[in-house]
């Protein structure tokens, strides 16, 4: 599956059903580009909310030329973290649903760059072995 998101999960279910209907063995389901678990950490989310709430105070204490701009950046960082946390939680829920359909599930984490060389493949291989 490309990513553990709604449409891709529906396609995966369809293909699992097709394999079953044809009495073909499903080796495993591979979840690609899964968001990291720390995005669903409650303490991390609390920190993000604190960053949003206290952005102006934190920025006013930093040795910067434009505290208002820094407060805006800190707020955006906190909001983005919370948004990614929602997406990561949804991915985990969808993965749990799929795990009921397959005895073996492998997760490849979201990587910051495309796989274009042997080093990139080594990263994927390490994730598969983990």
Short description:
By secondary structure, this protein is mostly helical. Helix content is 62%, strand content 8%. The radius of gyration is 20 Å and the shape is elongated.
Q: Helical residue percent?
A: 55-70%
**Tally of alpha and pi helices:** 5
Number of structurally distinct domains: 1
Strand order of the largest sheet: 1-2
Instruction: Give the rounded overall mean pLDDT.
Output: 88
Strand content: 5-15%
Low-confidence stretches: none
Task: Give a verbal description of the structure.
With 130 residues, the chain is mainly α. It has one domain (6-129). 62% of the residues lie in helices and 8% in strands. The chain is built from five helices and two strands; from the N terminus they run αβαααβα. The protein has helices at residues 6-21, 42-53, 55-61, 67-99, 118-129; strands at residues 29-34, 105-109. The protein has a two-stranded parallel sheet. Helix 2 packs antiparallel against helix 4 (67-99).
What keyword list fits this structure?
two-stranded parallel ribbon, mainly alpha, 8% strand, 5 helices, 130 residues
Topology, element by element:
Layout: H1 6-21, E1 29-34, H2 42-53, H3 55-61, H4 67-99, E2 105-109, H5 118-129
Parallel strand pairs: 1-2
Helix pairs in contact: 2-4, 3-4
